[in-house]
Amino acid sequence: MLTKHLAPLDGESDAPLFDKIATDLRRDGFSINANALPWHIAQALLTHSQSMHSQQFETAGIGREENYNVNQAIRSDAICWITGTSFAGSQWLAWCQQLQDHLNQKLFLGLFSFESHYACFQPGAFFKRHYDTFKGDKNRVLSVVAYLNKDWQQSDGGELVLYKDEQDTKGKKIHPEFATLAIFLSEEFPHEVLPANRQRLSVTGWFRVNQFNG
Ligand SMILES: O=C(O)CCC(=O)C(=O)O
Ligand SMILES: [Fe+2]
């Protein structure tokens, strides 16, 4: 299947992709883009995540800081927070900073900071339907997921299912193929990760507003 390449070739700018994301977010509240994350960044993230020992990944939890709970009935992936200390991490964070600046200019979202982690779902692992933040908790505003799985097949499962509201039970399925980028408003969309037949790697991040000005 031929997919339109949104990612820039060397020397081209990311502006067309950032513009499309801004337009989609304004209209729909979400933006799904195949072949979107620049290939060299996706490749660096994949190589880095594969080079780490499994001990560097921790069992994922729910909530923040003192409310953090590990509940494997809700999610059974393992995560590793991304800092700027690795080459891959610094490339990714710099790219997300550009996206943040662009979205702030276009949509006046007031995005202020960004946090992200690798997530590794072993075969059978899942993340049940949830919101990334709670209404009124002005913390996480925009969720971004970049997938790192080459040649992902339909039969591999592991889709992200994005529901348009509380009532929606059908949802929209997103195939976690390498360099696909899913972006959505954190407060608006319940979503879940279906179990996969093979290991599923991704990077998940959240743009946040400044709580003290919120
Ligand atoms: O990996 C995905 O597709 C989504 C992960 C997710 O929902 C989360 O980390 O909050
Ligand atoms: Fe989520």
UniProtKB/TrEMBL annotation:
It comes from the Bacteria. Keywords: Dioxygenase, Iron, Metal-binding, Oxidoreductase, Vitamin C. SMART domains: P4Hc. InterPro entries: HIF_prolyl_hydroxylases, Oxoglu/Fe-dep_dioxygenase_dom, Pro_4_hyd_alph, Pro_4_hyd_alph_FE2OG_OXY. It holds the Pfam family 2OG-FeII_Oxy_3. Residues 107-209 form the Fe2OG dioxygenase domain. Gene3D superfamilies: q2cbj1_9rhob like domain. This is 2OG-Fe(II) oxygenase. Signal peptide: none annotated. Transmembrane segments: none annotated. GO terms for molecular function: ferrous iron binding; L-ascorbic acid binding; peptidyl-proline dioxygenase activity. Its cofactor is L-ascorbate. GO terms for biological process: cellular response to hypoxia. The keyword Ubl conjugation does not apply.
